[in-house]
Amino acid sequence: MREESLAFLKNLCETVSPSGYEQPAQELFREYVRPYCDRVETDILGCAIGVRNPEGQPRLMLAGHADEIGFIIRFINDEGYLYFAPVGGHDAVVTVGQRVTIRTANGPVAGVIGKKAIHLMTEEERGKVPDLSELWIDIGASSKKEAEELVSLGDPIAYRVPFELLQNDLAVSKAFDNKMAVFLIGETLRLLAGKQIRAGVYGVSTVQEEIGIRGARTSAYHVDPLLGIALDVGHAGDYPAADKKRSGDLAVGKGPMICRGANINPKMFERLAQTAKEIGIPYQIEVAPGGTGTDANAMQLNKGGMATALVAVALRYMHTPCEVISLKDLEHTAQLLAAFVERLTPDMDWTP
After folding, report:
1. Is the entire prediction scored with pTM above 0.85?
2. Which of 33, 140, 222, 338 lies deepest, with the highest CB count within 10 Å?
3. Is residue 149 annotated as a catalytic residue, yes or no?
4. For the stretch 230-269, what's the b/e string if a residue is b when 16 or more beta carbons lie within 10 angstroms of its beta carbon?
C-alpha cells in the first residue's frame, strides 16, 4: 500500500469519532477526497459526500460509516472519577482495564477504565461479567472540580489503541469497523481520478450507523441514487473457536466479501462478481438471509427502492480494541469498486 494511503487509514483509525461525534474523521475524509472530486459537501446530519461526475448516469452511492463504538461521559463523582455510557455495542469483558482518550474542547485527555482488583472480589463477583455502569474512568483528577476543568459531560471517548502492522500484510486497529470503509471510498475516488466514467459517483462517509443506521437513511434520500454499494466489515471465520456454520467459511486475506441475499439486488451481486473475475481479484461470497445490519438496509429501502449491494472486508475480533484485517484485502476491494464504476453505463437494467 502506498505511503499516503496508509497514513490516511492510520489517521482515520486513531481519530476519536464515536456515533454523533464523527466530524474529526469527516474532516480527514473531506481533505483526502477533495483533489479527486468535482465537489465535496456535508449534509445536516454530518455525512460527508465526495461527488465525481455529478451529471453522470446511473447515479451510484458508495456508503461507509465514519462512526466507531465508544463511550460518553455521563456523570462525574466528588472524587473526580468519570462514569460513562456506551455508544454502540460493547463486550464488557474487553472493556475492563483499557486505556482511553477523551475528546474535549481543549484537546485530548488520557484515562483508564478502572475496576476493583481481583484480590478484593468475592467469589460471586469473580464469576460475574461487570456491567458497564459499574466501571469508571480515572484521569488522575483528585476532585470533581479538577475533573470538570478538564472534561465535560457529553464528551466522547474511544479506546486509546494505536494502529499497528502485523505479520503477513495484516493490521490491527480499534476502529476498522468502519473507518476502513471510509478509507475505501477515498481510495476508490483516487483510483477513478482522471478516468472517463459515465456514472455519477457519490462517495458518502455516513454517520451514526452504530446506533441505528441513521446517516445512510438521510444521505440516500438526499443523493437519490439508482444504485448503492454499502461498504462494511464482515465476520471472518479463520480463527480458533469460530463457528463456520454460523459465520460462513470466510477468511482474512482471501479477497473482498461480496454479499448475496435478500438485502442485495441480484444483478448488482452478479456484476460485482463478474468484475472481480475480469480483473483477476479473488473474492468471497458472504450470505445474508435477511437484513445485513449495515448501511445497505437503509439504502435498499430509500424512496422507491435502490439496487443495493454490500461489499465487506473480512475482520477478526469485531467490536474489540484489536480488530484485524488484511491490507491486501483493502487494496483489492478498492480496485474492484473502481473497476465496477468504470463498467457502468446508462442503459444497464437493474430490475431483478
Report:
1. yes
2. 33
3. no
4. bbbbbbbbeeeebeeeebbebbbbbbbbbbbbebbbebbb
Q: In this predicted model, what pLDDT tens digit does every residue of 239-260 receive, in sequence order? A: 998 888 888 999 999 999 999 9
Count the neighbouring beta carbons within 10 Å of the beta carbon of residue 328.
Answer: 17
* CB-count burial class (<10 Å; 0-12, 13-18, 19+) for 280: exposed
- 71-159 in CATH: which number? 2.40.30.40
Catalytic residue among 14, 22, 209, 210: 209
Q: Does domain 3-68+174-342 have CATH number 3.40.630.10?
A: yes
Rounded to an integer, what distance in angstroms lies between the CA atom of residue 318 and that of residue 250?
14
Domain ranges of the chain: 3-68+174-342, 71-159
Regions of the chain where pLDDT drops below 70: none
Query: Alpha helix locations (H) across the chain?
Result: 3-14, 23-33, 92-95, 123-126, 144-148, 176-192, 214-223, 244-247, 266-279, 295-300, 327-342
